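Q: Predict the assembly, please.
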Amino acid sequence: MAIFNKPVSNKQGYKQGYQIRALLKTACLSLLQQKLRSLLSILGIVCGIMAVVAVIAIGEGAEQETMRHIKQMGITNIYIRADQLTEEQQQRAKQHHSAGLQNSDRERLRTNPFIRRTAGTRERTRNLTDLPQGLHPQLMECTASYGDILGIQMALGRFISETDTVRHHQVCVLGSQIAADMGRKGQLGQEIRIGEQLSLVVGILARQDGEDGQEELKTKQTKKTEITKVTKVTIQNLNNIIFFPLDTVAGKTEAITTTATTADPLTGQLPLTEILVEVKQADQVKPCAALLRRSLHKAHNGFDDFQLIIPLELLAQARKIQGIFNLVFAIIGAITLFVGGIGIMNIMLANISERIHEIGLRRAVGARPEHILIQFLGEAVLLTLIGGIIGILCGVLLASFLGRLTGWPIGFSLPVLLLPLAISVMTGLFFGIYPARKAAAMDPIQALGSPS
Amino acid sequence: MLISARNINHQYNHGSGCLQVLQGVDLDIEEKDFLAIMGSSGSGKSTLLHILGCLLKPTSGTCFLRGRDILQLQEKELAQLRAETIAHVFQQFHLLPTMTVLENVLLPSLYNSIPPQQAEAEARRAIQQVGLEQRLRHKPNELSGGEMQRVAIARALAVKPDLILADEPTGNLDQDSSQEILTLFREINQQGCTLVMVTHDPEIAGQARSTRYLRNGNLQ
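A: Predicted assembly structure:
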């Protein structure tokens, strides 16, 4: 029983594990002892974390969706889209001798050293005559390069080729959905009648990712006039399109484009719906877009009947909006967690004054103030951790429920689940430190002798 | 000599002034002694016991435990003394209500250097020594007062201390239970453990080996 040959430190590894287990058990027991009170005290944390998880998941889903759209549009691409003109605007276009977006506009871009390649498309609204009822594919004339720029994958056959456009071949390529809907008629080698003209099916697209129907993305685009106007950017659902070579339409007058019904008085050509420009490098997109805008403005005699859609800019804008959204959300979450944390602090203070004898006793049997600090801090963290886990589960359920109810995409990634967990632990540490320090600083004799 | 305290002075400071409780107390405790300290309530006997138990630092004085001045030690070393060398038995037992008998007895092992398995063996042996081996899994509220105090004694014994300090250990017990506790103390003392007991009851004090009286802040 000699006292001085005992080691001074008791911090052996095995002892720490033993201590942690024992303290964890004490913490669980004390929380279970007051089940209702513990549950009520973590309610604030549960709500806070639930809100955090649900909104992050919805925000993340929206961001993933936006990114997917924009990446599908191509980061190095610039879309020059013809504006839909009102009658008054058409009058003004005539005064300016602007014939809308023309293939000649596209030809002119070829000399631009920043540009790798260009494509032109013309949307047509005239329907096929021999399609089964209820099918409404979109009809689109395009150049061969359209498939290359968008990286279109073929399931069968080939896409529109250069030769098709030059030689005006009567061919067409089907999107996967329309091909499937048309059944036997939608197979390679079949002929599809449009107006008076038969087109040979030479290719069928592989299925593209994304939901059915047209997907619309609302973004804000600042125009030169400094007025912010909302532009609808339509991403074509490639699955429901029938492609034809550009300028091979029978009876050109029957075709209706979205830009104007009148053809160019000089060439007799109909205007294009869209010119797709692929820039060589992403960092050249911005200067290139400015250049395009200037040259088109000049070519259209000062009448801007087109707009530039730049996915890279949309991406930047989407990120900016997402950033604001995240900030607002972080503030709301922080407020909720602050309120929840005060609840935790309150309950820990009540806990400590109820267990004041325990604190005194532990000190009397050899606990150092650090031991008491760790014990009560650990209990606070355990509380918030449980609250965090319940909150995450509820948040996941809430987000899935909202996603199903509204059709919003929901994104769950590891950070969505781990970040709130880390936040709840930090809340426990932050709001638990004051009560724990108070407990640790107690005088053991006063603690033991205080009236129970 | 286990403890040699010289000229211990202690005063409590209140808002309205200070209260001198101990005035130059000298106390020697031999190894394997069983000492009773008597005094009326408020005479400072508990204060003296807290000083000996490293829970309280006196205003002035020296207190040597086997030649080492415990009043000069840091909190960490004091905590180690409380965990391994000096054990307390309280009037109110101070058992943790959520823990079983065994867990209560194991509590000091959280803070001392005895390996966990050995600590559990010691705890079981101590519980057996106080005659509660049938009550290992019981909670304190399922025990009688005498049994609770025996659990508290087992908790003290389990760390194999050199000194057990008992503050009115029978104050909350009936006659029979008190006698059981005192018999147990004598048995523990015969096995070589030094005991210091504070009481105001001469009959209880009479069962110790030696008795000192604390009057007006002085030991006589």
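Chain A touches chain B at residues 1, 3-4, 6-10, 12, 14-15, 18-19, 22-23, 26, 29-30, 33, 357-358, 360-369, 371, 444-445, 448, 452 (CB under 8 Å). The first strand of chain A starts at residue 77 and ends at 82.
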